[in-house]
């Protein structure tokens, strides 16, 4: 079996993360009167249905170790620091529990988290309630802000998130779908979770304004046993564009049932799956021309303030070190700690949470994923990163490779091809 095609093993990832967090960034033994050790909490789904999101973390933690050696220069002094990594188990309740442990038991100075609102929102809520600065990414802005009952007039005090907005990503989808001459009947699979409920509120008016009829069979709980009713509704409405926002196991159920029932949409966008090589490899040729938003790639025109690397250099280093294909998640795993360190370096008084919070609030960082500035919104406490669109095609180096097919919002990212419809083996 091709080693590139193996599904991401959860136990090896969990083990490597534990080693990286425990020994890769050790507590230093400073001399008398040396600055105290800073503690950074890092919460992510190491196991469970969202484990695909953590693939690049051991590599990024090793980058941090090699770049800083466990010492962060702040205000003329070198501060030892420790990253405490915890597993949310892809469960919002567990994410909340480990966040509270890091706050109350480990006394973290700043919290970081990523990977969908199911991880980010409960962690952010605990930090907001306990007055702990919190930086997150990889949670779309509307589910993050409105899923936490945010008030656009007030925002939050302690918690900040950067990622794409639903409004911006829908425009990218429409740009691709229109070029594929779809019937403008769009079938959607939005679950009864934070992403699904927020997208069901925000996205339909945007699609409808562009002339699409949204075929929405309604919310459903996860894990789902089958999608027979939804597929029947899509076929009845002649929905030749399909948008799913589902964890990998549930999308597999849907996609297998679609094949059995001969539902063959002209375009398929599988959120939470299509962003990752290990997410699409198992489908083989059935994944060719899956169309997804691309948050980051080796072709993006940015560089890291932490390592000085370009996007291409970061991707190349990861692939050489791991013998695995870099994905868009790499840039965001790197950027989370990159921006976190930028915040700490600008903090005036590290012993005051309010001072770290104030540095977080005034962030203006030209990161590996683009400019991060929380004063520009589109909602309080958020920074919007832009996306392009890509499709999975047969690759030269890897079994499947993501080709950029639309760059209307980031024209500096070069096109690698043009939108193509699904083929279904024809």
TrEMBL record:
Q: What's the domain of life for this entry?
A: Bacteria
Q: Which residues form a coiled coil?
A: none
The UniProt keywords, alphabetically, are: Amino-acid transport, Signal, Transport
Which interval of the chain is the signal sequence?
A: 1-33
**Do you know which InterPro entries this protein is assigned to?**
BCAA_transport, Leu-bd, Peripla_BP_I
Entry-linked Pfam families: Peripla_BP_6
- Note whether Hydrolase occurs among the keywords: no
Q: Does the keyword Transport apply?
A: yes
GO annotations under biological process? amino acid transport
Annotated Leucine-binding protein domain ranges read 37-377
The similarity annotation says: Belongs to the leucine-binding protein family.
Q: PANTHER family under this entry?
A: LEUCINE-SPECIFIC-BINDING PROTEIN, PERIPLASMIC BINDING PROTEIN OF ABC TRANSPORTER FOR NATURAL AMINO ACIDS
- What is this protein identified as? Leucine-binding protein domain-containing protein
Species this protein is from: Rhodopila globiformis (Rhodopseudomonas globiformis)
């Amino acid at each position: 079996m091709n080693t590139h095609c193996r599904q991401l093993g959860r136990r090896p990832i969990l083990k490597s993360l534990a080693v990286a967090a425990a020994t890769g960034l050790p507590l230093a033994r400073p001399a008398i009167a040396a600055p105290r050790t800073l503690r950074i909490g890092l919460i992510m789904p190491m196991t469970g249905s969202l484990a695909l999101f953590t693939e690049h973390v051991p590599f990024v933690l090793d980058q941090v170790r090699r770049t800083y050696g466990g010492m962060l220069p702040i205000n003329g002094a070198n501060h030892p620091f420790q990253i405490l990594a915890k597993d949310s188990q892809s469960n919002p309740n567990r994410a909340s529990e480990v966040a509270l442990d890091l706050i109350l038991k480990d006394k973290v100075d700043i919290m970081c988290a990523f990977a969908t609102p199911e991880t980010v929102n409960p962690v952010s809520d605990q930090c907001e309630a306990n007055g702990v600065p919190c930086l997150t990414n990889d949670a779309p802005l509307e589910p993050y802000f409105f899923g936490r009952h945010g008030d656009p007039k007030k925002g939050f005090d302690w918690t900040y998130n950067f990622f794409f907005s639903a409004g911006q990503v829908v425009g990218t989808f429409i740009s691709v779908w229109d070029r594929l001459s779809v019937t403008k009947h769009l079938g959607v699979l939005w679950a009864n979770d934070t992403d699904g409920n927020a997208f069901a509120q925000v996205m339909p008016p945007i699609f409808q304004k562009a002339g699409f009829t949204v075929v929405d069979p309604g919310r459903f709980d996860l894990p789902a046993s089958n999608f027979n009713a939804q597929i029947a509704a899509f076929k009845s409405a002649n929905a030749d564009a399909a948008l799913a926002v589902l964890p990998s196991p549930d999308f597999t159920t849907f996609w297998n049932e679609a094949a059995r029932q001969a539902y063959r949409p002209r375009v398929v966008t599988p959120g939470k799956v299509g962003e990752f090589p290990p997410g699409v490899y198992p489908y083989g040729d059935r994944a060719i021309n899956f169309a997804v938003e691309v948050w980051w790639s080796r072709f993006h025109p940015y560089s890291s303030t932490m390592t000085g690397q370009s996007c291409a250099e970061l991707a190349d280093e990861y692939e050489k070190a791991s013998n695995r294909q870099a994905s868009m998640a790499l840039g965001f795993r790197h950027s989370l700690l990159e921006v976190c360190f930028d915040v700490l370096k600008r903090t005036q008084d590290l012993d005051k949470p309010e001072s770290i919070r104030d540095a977080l609030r005034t962030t203006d960082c030209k990161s590996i994923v683009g400019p991060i500035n929380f004063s520009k919104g589109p909602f309080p406490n958020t920074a919007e990163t832009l996306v392009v669109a890509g499709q999975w095609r047969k690759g030269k180096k890897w079994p499947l490779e993501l080709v950029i097919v639309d760059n209307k919002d980031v024209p500096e990212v070069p096109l690698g091809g043009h939108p193509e419809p699904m083929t279904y083996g024809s």
